[in-house]
Design the sequence.
């Protein structure tokens, strides 16, 4: 079931890769498509799903505590690896981003395929807390190990505060809690936009892969990818299970933990003094590797923790 449910997700990513490499429809198409996804389609999906989600079983303070515990543990483990391997500061910032960040588009597509609308709602709630936390942690790591300027850090903080994914999650939760619902015409419009979000998002993920960057191999790429795809899912899911969260929430945590790193990591690496070449390699390598590791890892997690 896991493989058959996830297969369409990875097929669309590969289709996006093939389209980009063949120049169809054009190289100019993809930047515009990514902006449309980021500012319109994905926010519409999050607002719609969160507004109508059943949030009775979601304990926000407990979810926040799980996130702080798991990401604190993950950060300490990665800093321990830095002490062991003595990477340069720039290299470690990319190893760190590769170890804890996740691709939101792939997450929601996989959650939708496996757990339906309620799974999307749970994932959106988790993401509304997780995205700010991850970005703050990454900025702290860049401030300690990177070579970026103070102005660059300030600009990044501003970008977090105005992140449309965070704002749409907050808006959706507010509408849900206040009981406000959309008029039918607006509901239908958001539904049409939402229906385009995940397919186009997956195509953009594939189009954004840089296979040439895979030449940027070596120990940092291997360690960061192994941590992200094989270790961190256990940290997240294990912490959620330890805190007694519902089964669906634990499953979503496991899925998020097993996702490849975010494409936005490359931009942060370039702006704040990280190793942009290694980051590009990590994004592409993890996206390809996740096609094999994700079904295997989730199968093991489902039999052990769930």
Sequence:
């Amino acid at each position: 079931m896991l493989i058959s449910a996830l297969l369409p997700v990875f097929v669309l990513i590969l289709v996006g890769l093939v389209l980009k490499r063949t120049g169809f429809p054009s190289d100019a198409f993809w930047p515009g498509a990514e902006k449309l996804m980021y500012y319109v389609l994905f926010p519409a999906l999050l607002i719609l799903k969160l507004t109508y989600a059943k949030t009775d079983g979601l304990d926000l303070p407990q979810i926040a505590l799980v996130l702080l515990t798991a990401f604190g543990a993950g950060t300490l483990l990665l800093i321990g690896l830095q002490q062991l391997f003595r990477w340069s500061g720039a290299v470690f910032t990319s190893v760190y981003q590769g170890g804890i960040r996740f691709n939101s588009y792939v997450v929601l597509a996989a959650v939708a395929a496996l757990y339906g609308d309620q799974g999307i709602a749970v994932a959106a709630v988790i993401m509304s807390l997780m995205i700010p936390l991850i970005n703050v942690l990454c900025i702290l790591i860049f401030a300690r190990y990177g070579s970026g300027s103070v102005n660059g850090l300030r600009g990044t903080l501003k970008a977090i505060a105005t992140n449309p994914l965070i704002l749409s999650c907050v808006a959706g939760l507010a509408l849900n809690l206040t009981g406000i619902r959309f008029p039918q015409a607006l509901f239908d419009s958001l539904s049409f936009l939402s229906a385009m979000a995940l397919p186009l998002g997956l195509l953009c993920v594939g189009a954004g892969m840089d296979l040439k960057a895979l030449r940027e191999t070596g120990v940092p790429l291997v360690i960061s990818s192994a941590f992200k795809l094989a270790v961190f899912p256990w940290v997240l899911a294990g912490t959620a299970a330890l805190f007694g969260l519902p089964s669906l929430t634990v499953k979503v945590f496991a899925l998020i933990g097993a996702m490849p790193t975010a494409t936005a990591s490359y931009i942060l690496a370039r702006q704040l003094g990280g190793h942009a070449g290694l980051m590009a390699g990590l994004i592409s390598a993890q996206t390809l590797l996740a096609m094999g590791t994700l079904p295997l890892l989730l199968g093991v997690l489902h039999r052990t923790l769930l």
In short: The chain has one domain: 2-304. Residues 104-145 form the longest helix (42 residues). The radius of gyration is 18 Å. The mean pLDDT is 91.
